[in-house]
Specification:
430 residues; BirA Bifunctional Protein, domain 2; Rossmann fold; eight-stranded mixed sheet; 16 strands; binds adenosine monophosphate
């Protein structure tokens, strides 16, 4: 026997009925985002590696440890290849597309959402995969379009609260912080360096490196032994300048007016370098260790860092895998059953069954077909197992008479129904 080939570690197949929940989540997101006037963007899964190095940041875990990247030698053998990467997140791709297609020339702010797979070489565990799915949205535009306004921050946060509410997900907590602007960050990084200098040799290897290269990332450290040291480090909130303080205050004022509940978490800095000012995470009680259901923040300098014009923006990414897990708690997945199972009786009846199936489907009825080789008993058993509402028995006699035998599989009751009346009768009773 040849060895079995299995799904790659950290990837998984999504099967029915679970896919029903995925589709439900995606439909709810499209609907909710549409009500806030967002439109869909689809960017490639494959991007130039430099895009993520310049946006997410070389010192982040995502870029330094978790990228699926390789040198593409598909050009001429002699030429140096281009480094390609599977996208680890989608904001960079959206901003690249914004620049590439000059979306700033369009009216107002751009409100874009995406749904798709992302890739990170993380250690797989429950709620953490190497191929996972994000549903995200971005508001981006020239400063004159209002893209920098705290009203945009509040708008995306309210949209998220609305989506979770519509899905019936409770028990979420919105954690909010401001990481200030780059000038604040310079002063804060210096304060962190000063505070870390006497203690850094007691910390993990990553922190020792980060303390030199990018001390803010020390706050992302998950090593338990380092936490007491991290707890005593200075807080970003003490280093915000007046405009950043004011911006953060205004975001909170609008959230209060909308009755969107939140808590301030001054340790929240998020694992991507491009964030400025507002950053946030929604966590969910039932998810265990991987309890962050979504995260996001403002990235006012990202477009310029990628060679584009000034285009402040804010966005978020929902971990769809985790949202589906949270939703499965309140709504177990179920495969939708067919309305009708057509039992073709006898040789030559497959074509007739297909014709009747076609008629019924035209009326919006879900139809499953049996096969003329099945005995009636087998057809009825299969119809019951599939959860079909009705079995329609179609043999030579039914074709001749135009009267079709319809069996209600819940009650066992059987009736002859004129073919023309069949769609109406089924729709009424399903
Ligand atoms: P990030 O892009 O790191 O801000 O992540 C945003 C959200 O994506 C997180 O809150 C998680 O819900 C989800 N997420 C990130 N990484 C993974 C992963 N490896 N597996 C599943 N979900 C993930």
């Amino acid at each position: 026997m040849p060895a079995l080939i299995k799904a790659v570690r950290g990837t998984r197949d999504l099967l029915p009925p679970d896919t029903e929940t995925w589709n439900l989540v995606e439909a709810a997101a499209r609907d909710c985002f549409g009500a806030f006037n967002f439109h869909e963007i689809r960017t490639p899964v494959l991007e130039d590696l430099a895009l993520f190095q310049r946006s997410v940041g070389e010192e982040t875990d995502i870029v330094s440890k978790e990228m699926f990247a390789w040198e593409d030698r598909s050009r001429a053998e002699s030429e140096k290849g281009q480094w390609l990467a599977l996208r680890p997140e989608n904001t960079a791709g959206v901003v690249r597309a914004y620049i590439e297609h000059k979306l700033w020339e369009r009216a107002g702010v751009q409100k874009l959402y995406y749904i798709g797979p992302q890739f990170r070489r993380e250690r797989p565990q429950k709620g953490r995969y190497r191929q996972f799915y994000q549903i995200g949205a971005e508001i981006i535009g020239p400063p004159a379009s209002g893209s920098e306004s705290p009203a945009r921050d509040a708008e995306v946060l309210e949209m998220l609260a609305t989506l979770l509410e519509r899905l019936g997900i409770q028990n979420w907590t919105l954690e909010l912080n401001s990481v200030g602007c780059p000038e604040d960050r310079v002063r804060y990084n210096q304060a962190l360096r000063d505070a870390l200098a006497p203690v850094v040799n007691q910390m993990c290897g990553d922190c020792q490196r980060r303390a030199v290269t990018n001390p803010l990332r020390v706050l992302d450290c998950k090593v338990p032994a380092d936490q007491p040291i991290i707890e005593k480090l200075p807080r970003i909130s003490d280093y915000l300048d007046e405009p950043c303080r004011e911006h953060f205050y205004e975001v909170q004022r609008i959230l209060k007016a909308l009755a969107v509940p939140y808590t301030i978490n001054s340790r929240l800095v998020r694992g991507l370098d491009y964030y400025v000012r507002t950053v946030f995470e929604f966590t969910h009680g039932a998810l265990g260790a991987q309890n962050a259901i979504l995260g996001g923040g403002r990235y006012d300098g990202l477009s310029e860092a990628l060679g584009g014009p000034r285009a402040p923006g804010i966005g978020f990414a929902i971990g769809e895998d985790r949202l589906v897990m949270a939703l499965a708690e309140v709504r177990p997945a179920e495969t939708a059953a067919p309305d009708v199972y057509i039992a073709a009786m006898g040789a030559g009846m497959n074509a007739e069954a297909a014709r009747l199936g076609r008629e019924l489907r035209h009326s919006g009825i879900t139809v499953e077909l049996g096969d003329e080789s099945f005995r009636l008993k087998k057809s009825l058993e299969t119809a019951s197992k599939l959860g079909a509402r009705f079995a329609v028995i179609l043999g030579e006699n039914e074709i001749q008479s135009g009267q079709i035998a319809v069996k209600n599989l819940a009650t066992g009751e059987q009736q002859a129904v004129a073919r023309a009346e069949l769609p109406g009768r089924i729709r009424q009773n399903r």
